[in-house]
Amino acid sequence: MTELRRCNWCLSTDKMTHYHDTYWGVPLHNDQELFAKLVLDLNQAGLSWATILNKQENFYEAFDNFEIEKIAVYDENKEQELLQNAGIIRNKLKVKAAIVNAQKVLEIQKEFGSFNKYIWSFTDGKVLQHQVNDESEIPATNELSDKMSKDMKKRGFKFTGSTVIYAFLQAVGVINDHADYCYRQAELMD
């Protein structure tokens, strides 16, 4: 029996491998799940994905399972509670960004019908299939992440720079950056 080849970045822990095999790059279309990924990716800024992955369950618990309507009305007391929670990233700017971004997602839902429609409108609903021979070739940003980041910032989103948005687009399957030799690459082709 041959072992499946995977992207090298996921081989460090069983948790990373499971995330790679099950979630990373799988097209998401649920507003709440898309929002959760956005908040997790903005919390990754300056940190490793392993750090966020290890705290993921704590994030879901602390942020009411990423219910957008609840987070949008978090008050100062809830902010302080989050900043005291050692199970998440206790960064005031990132906590505030989650709240502001929930409010902005609600505005987008009114304008576009859903956060999903907004996110996928940048590619006309299509997955961008990248040819990745060597993982070192994967950029930190691209034209798409630049464009989406610029639009989100114009709308008032926080912590949505092009690098954060590129990681988000990979995670939610808008961009398929699985390496050519990875078994998931072919599985996630259109």
From TrEMBL:
Coiled coil: none annotated. InterPro entries: Adenine_glyco, DNA-3mA_glycosylase, DNA_glycosylase. This is DNA-3-methyladenine glycosidase I. One of its GO terms (molecular function) is metal ion binding. Its EC number is 3.2.2.20. Gene3D superfamilies: Hypothetical protein, domain 2. It is an enzyme of class 3 (hydrolase). Keywords: Glycosidase, Hydrolase, Metal-binding, Zinc. It comes from Lactococcus lactis subsp. lactis (strain IL1403). One of its GO terms (biological process) is base-excision repair. It holds the Pfam family Adenine_glyco. Zn(2+) binds at residues 7, 20, 178, 182. SUPFAM superfamilies: DNA-glycosylase.
